[in-house]
Amino acid sequence: MTAVLIVLLFLIYVMIFNFSAEDATASSGVSQKVTKWLLHLYYKLQGNTGGLTVVIPAGEVDEAEAVIRKLAHFTEYMLVGLLSLWIWLLWNDKRLRCGAFVLVQLMISASLDEFHQYFVPGRYASIRDVLIDTAGGLTGMLLVFLVSLCIRKSTKS
Q: Where are the membrane-spanning stretches (predicted)?
């Protein structure tokens, strides 16, 4: 089980590195495609298809893209926080120590990710993104803590 979690964590870090290594044009292109797909799905589910094709109001892709990009940061690091804490808790039952270690890991990896982007053409480092990444990681950690608490309570009953 631990090996599978470590491989998944490694793959997430590889994915984060690869996304950060894309220049501004490639990164924006991916974000635009994802945003258009999500808006298309949203309007289709709402029944606003305007016939056979989905009509997305002008300018809405650009507005939604910024939100989608930040959600991507949050989600990537939520998975990092979740997997990292899960791995550490499998090795050690000292929850507070494991949580502190993973929090430091999250802040360092988010900072290194932004530092890496600084050297990519058209990209820049953002403290706000480090904070979003860390918040995502903390959310993943919180999920692990809540699930482990529920499991402990159910086994005591």
A: 71-91, 98-119, 131-151
The most distant pair of C-alpha atoms in the chain lies apart, rounded to whole Å, by 58
Write 38-44 long-range contacts (CB < 8 A, 24+): 38/64, 38/68, 39/64
Angle formed by the axes of helices 95-118 and 2-21, to 10°? 20
- Reduced to 3 states (helix: H, G, I; strand: E, B; else coil), residue 155 is helix
15-34 pLDDT, tens digit per residue, is: 999 999 999 999 988 988 99
Domains of the chain, by residue range, sit at 2-156
pTM score, whole prediction: 0.86
Binning pLDDT at 50, 70 and 90, where does residue 50 land?
Answer: low
Task: Give residue for tokens 């053409």.
Answer: 121
**DSSP state letters, 73-134:** HHHHHHHHHHHHHHHHHHH---HHHHHHHHHHHHHHHHHHHHHHHHTSTT----HHHHHHHH
Q: Which residue has the tokens 């910024």?
A: 66
